[in-house]
Amino acid sequence: MPAKATKPSKVYFADTRSRAAKESKIAKIAKLFKAAGFAKLIEKDALTAVKLHFGERGNDSHVSPVFARQVADAIKAAGGKPFLTDANTLYSGSRFNAVDHLVTAVEHGFGFAVTGAPLIVCDGLTGGDLREIAVKGKHFKKVKIAAAVAGADAMIVMSHFKGHEMAGFGGAIKNLAMGCAPAAGKREQHSPRFGVDAKACIGCAECFKVCPAKAVAVKAKKAAIDKKICIGCGECMTVCKSKAIVIDWATDLPPFTERMVEYALGAVKAVHGKAGYLNFALNITPDCDCCSWSDAPIVPDVGILASLDPVALDQACFDLVNNQRGLAGAKLAANFEPGQDKFKGVWSYTCGEIQLSYGEQIGLGSRAYELVGI
Question: Rounded to two decimals, what is the model's pTM?
């Protein structure tokens, strides 16, 4: 974990241009791994988690298994023993338990033949394998981290940088927070309770189909949410085309984001700070890879970035994305001009910057960075 910054954290950057094999994205991943000093995190025979998101079935914007292979190979070259890992989901889908999760991962190309590393679902068969890690946060004194993450000697976190309907954006911080938490930890992070605007509801029942807590009922062609049962995961909002799902964003979202950041800190503490981070600012979609689809990107591809500091890394990605001109024809509804917050242009009620400001406040990392091209 980065110490309190006295100078900007280094963030290494590779753009997307290639005119030769040595300039390919594959070659650039190896260069970024070396430049960022990830090999120094890995001792001989270190069990090294490669924290990924394998993508919900139907999603194709997740990080490529071919890219995961480059990281696995670099870990082996450093003397470590890599394994690819993610935690089961809170919602019912193709990654709700370890059996379905591994089937989905293999279907998406993450088998050993492609990646050269075994697959392990880090919170076990049904999400019950966890360890409690102490943090000194506003919301938590202890957080629940998936056992295989907490048991790893080191971790390389590979994140697709993209939008998110509650967090604003998802990058290294969100991958640490939600991605390293078992179901119980995900529930602790989520707390908003959703309602339904009956006038807007068209009775399609898509929210009913995805609710993991069975908190949604559809009567007289209108959905209703039982707030006593609702766990606040937000899946209903993701699939609602008529925007009938409502929440008090100003009250509920800031503490949700802070809880998420405290969980990210717990994940880093679980591996004793031995973590490196790669963000893939490619195919920058409006939604998380938990969706069973991939929408059109909201800005052109930016590149691949690496750092030992997750806050600086996400800050750099956030800045580079927002410095782009928004793409017409995407979900982006506002903030098309360079310098404007593209994620607010998609999800107007979110404030992704809370991830960065609160992350710096609690010692997860620094917002100050030096961008170093390779």
Answer: 0.89
